[in-house]
Amino acid sequence: PYTGGHLWRVSRYAALLCERAGIGTEECARIAIGGFLHDLGKVGIPDAILRKREKLSDAEYAVIKTHPNVGARMLAGHPLAGLVLDAVLLHHETPDGRGYPQGLSGSDVPLAARIVGLCDAFDAMTSTRPYRAGMPIPDALKQIEAAAGRQFDTTLAAHFVELGRAGLLAHIAGHSD
Fold this sequence. Notes:
Elements: H1 2-20, H2 25-37, H3 47-50, H4 58-64, H5 67-75, H6 81-90, H7 111-126, H8 137-147, H9 154-165, H10 170-173
Helix pairs in contact: 1-2, 1-7, 2-6, 2-7, 5-6, 6-7, 7-8, 8-9
């Protein structure tokens, strides 16, 4: 149930961010679908790891980090895979090159992955998880601002923070599983 809500929220955030950034309607729709499918590969991660209440061990975190590749393999051969593959495979890549699975940096990280990655991180920060309570939206927005240029695309982060400060994210963040 948590994952279903998470996917819906990331998709909605991505659609709003695309619109705010002036991205065309068709591209926004594609990115929103990518947001909905970005964690597809988590079906290949054991529930014991996904639902663990304590901090993950290094070995368990290594298993979690396989979900982008698992998702990409699941999409392989599907005629519409090209629409969402960048979001599914690369949503944990970061502008500073410290992301995974490929260690891409800067403009080598596709736009869809940069958008979905930012929205995914925001939802992770603001959502209650088995091991911690979600943080308030203003605190999450401050973290996004602080990580702009490193973890998040600078321009997209600024647009997202504007959306949040205008109160346009709260109705999504408040949407339950």
